[in-house]
Write a sequence for this structure.
């Protein structure tokens, strides 16, 4: 139903991890790959590997990412017309306020959050658009940051399921929580001998963590998300 992808730093490397969400709301670690950065070529290979091992996207999938260009491009090229991308609203908000003076960041963080919390696509989009003229006067770079990929931060709104599933899917919190749990096993290691050690430790950590992962909040609405994905991706006729 949904796929979270993000990276965790291991010394000079990045471990890119995929976390799946089933139609019943279960979270399942799907795999990881070692890379220098979240670049498109590496992520494409990773995603193709997931497909080769049985990841099904025929009925559509929602991919939640932090906005990294390599992740975005790879998903578009590998999953093509079977995926919608939802960009993390928390990362977008923090990217925008990072351009502003410190004395204004708290105010704008609150204003952006209030706009994103509007229940419908039209209300959220209008609220964000109303902020643009003032933001343009303050900092055009902050405005450019807000406008870049804005529509994809509203994917859940556009699908009509923000109220029901936003608490779980509007940000990358689900996978960042998994990263934090992995860190309980790995963060105290100050010397990694080789790549094999990194792979063994992260695999072992994920095996320990998986049984403790709870279903996402709002999981009862995931069948509605499946239908909305099919409609948006124009898969209804094919599914029938």
């Amino acid at each position: 139903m949904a796929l979270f992808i993000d990276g965790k730093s291991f010394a000079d490397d990045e471990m890119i991890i995929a976390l799946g969400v089933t139609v019943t709301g279960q979270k399942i670690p799907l795999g990881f790959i070692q890379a220098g950065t979240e670049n498109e070529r590496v992520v494409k290979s990773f995603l193709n590997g997931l497909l080769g091992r049985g990841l099904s996207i025929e009925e559509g999938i929602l991919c939640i990412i932090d906005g990294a260009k390599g992740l975005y491009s790879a998903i578009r090229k590998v999953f093509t017309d079977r995926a919608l991308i939802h960009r993390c609203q928390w990362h977008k908000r923090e990217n925008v306020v990072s351009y502003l003076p410190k004395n204004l960041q708290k105010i704008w963080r609150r204003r952006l959050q209030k706009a994103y919390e509007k229940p419908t696509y039209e209300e959220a989009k209008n609220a964000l658009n109303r902020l643009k003229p003032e933001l343009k006067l303050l900092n055009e770079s902050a405005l450019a940051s807000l406008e870049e990929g804005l529509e994809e931060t509203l994917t859940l709104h556009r699908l009509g399921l923000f109220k029901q599933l936003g608490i779980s899917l509007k940000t990358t919190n689900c996978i960042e929580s998994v990263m934090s749990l992995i860190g309980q096993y790995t963060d105290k290691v100050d010397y990694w001998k080789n790549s094999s050690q990194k792979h063994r430790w992260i695999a072992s950590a994920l095996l320990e963590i998986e049984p403790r992962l709870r279903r996402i909040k709002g999981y009862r609405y995931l069948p509605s998300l499946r239908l909305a994905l099919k409609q948006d991706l124009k898969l209804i006729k094919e599914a029938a």
